[in-house]
Design brief:
Layout (H helix, E strand, L loop, with lengths): L4 E10 L2 E9 L7 E9 L4 H6 L30 E8 L11 E4 L6 E4 L4 E3 L6 H4 L2 H14 L6 E5 L3 H10 L6 E5 L3 H9 L4 E3 L3 H13 L6 E6 L5 H9 E9 L15 H4 L3 E4 L15 H14 L6 E6 L3 H10 L6 E5 L1
Parallel strand pairs: 8-9, 8-11, 9-10, 11-12, 12-13, 14-15
Antiparallel strand pairs: 1-2, 3-4, 3-6, 3-15, 4-5, 5-7
Helix pairs in contact: 3-4, 3-9
Length: about 350
């Protein structure tokens, strides 16, 4: 009698509670492959909202990805950045895929079956750990597409978590663009400089005043031309309005979940004709619809990862069995982390 294969799956079981469960894994369907996970990356954005129970009730997970169904509710599997190796192919799948390294938008678990068209084959010269940055790099590409920076502009990126850092890295390739970044934590500000920021600022009042002065004095045009809010801190949006110049653009990439964002639209926002645009990676702006597909955008993100050295952004590695410690670290000591990953 053939032994039943097991897998380890991570479940969010309640507020600030996760556990690893052993589950039976059936045979591989004919049109699918079996992937053995090597690494998965923890999202400090959406996953931590789920961990902290800060997602609105009955909010759908992500209708653009087949692996996710229904709404966020406990207990549930979640996660969307997994890298592994194909260890078995179904009967109707080309066995040339055997042993290929792949990326998947998939929850944290040690093994899973999936159709090949739901995987991204990794280039042979790309380290598997680097591929973990693909979802956030795609988000950063989408942010920059929505912002449409112009040569010579002053750009502020509020928040230097991994999405903010990757956005900064992409912006650094635009000629003449001056990049000002803001973050609470020294570790992330240092990484920001390494990835292309021109000037860095903390969230302390004195530092933010220095940012405002710099934006008003370093060129003839006061304020930022373009500002990205990716801090996940609701108060940052109101601050960002004060940093944005006349007719400036704000790209809101943060998802605050159930956290309210208090705004005053009666002052600088109203008089300065500021535009606020939401940016979300599940869709592409209609301006690009005739030429761009998600697969094209994903390939651009994959190419950009191949050009950068990002493993230094991985600050911690935890075995999946110790995932509780990983989430607790991100929750209680974010100043020590950039990208935390699970190993299998």
């Amino acid at each position: 009698m053939e032994a039943i294969m097991k897998r380890r799956s991570l479940y969010f079981t309640g507020p600030e509670a996760v556990e690893t469960r052993e589950e039976d894994l059936g045979s591989v369907p004919g049109d699918q492959v079996l992937v053995q996970t090597l690494y998965s990356a923890i999202s400090a954005g959406t996953e931590m909202l789920l961990y902290r129970n800060q997602i609105p009730d009955n909010f759908p997970v992500d209708t653009s990805l087949e692996v996710f169904e229904g709404a966020f509710r406990y207990p549930m599997k979640y996660g969307y950045s997994t890298v592994g190796k194909i260890v078995e192919t179904g009967k109707s799948v080309d066995n040339a895929l055997q042993d290929e390294f792949v990326f998947a938008f998939h929850p944290h678990e040690s093994h899973f079956t999936v159709r090949p068209d739901e995987l991204v084959l990794l280039p042979p010269d790309l380290a598997p750990e680097d591929a973990l940055f693909l979802p956030n790099m795609e988000t950063a590409v989408n942010l920059v597409m929505d912002g449409q920076p112009v040569i010579g502009e002053k750009v502020v990126v509020m928040g230097q978590g991994i999405v903010g850092l990757l956005t900064t890295a992409l912006l650094s390739h635009y000629p003449g663009v001056v990049i000002y970044t803001v973050d609470s934590y020294q570790l992330r500000r240092n990484a920001s400089l390494q990835l292309g920021a021109d000037r860095i600022f903390s969230t302390e009042t004195e530092s933010l005043e220095e940012l405002s002065t710099a934006l008003d004095s370093e060129t003839n045009s006061a304020g930022a031309d373009l500002l990205f809010e990716v801090s996940s801190v609701p108060e940052a949006l109101a601050q960002g309005i004060n940093f944005t110049g006349f007719d400036g653009r704000i790209i809101l990439g943060s998802w605050y979940g159930a956290k309210p964002a208090e705004m005053n639209f009666g002052g600088e926002f109203h008089r300065n004709r500021i535009t606020i645009k939401s940016s979300q990676v599940s869709t592409i702006d209609s301006r690009f619809g005739a030429r761009w597909t998600k697969s094209r955008r994903l390939q651009v993100a994959l190419d950009r990862i191949g050009e950068m050295s990002l493993q230094s952004c991985i600050t911690h590695r935890f075995p999946v069995e110790d995932a509780g410690e990983a989430y607790q670290l991100i929750d209680q000591h974010p100043e020590k982390t950039i990208q935390v990953i699970l190993t299998y």
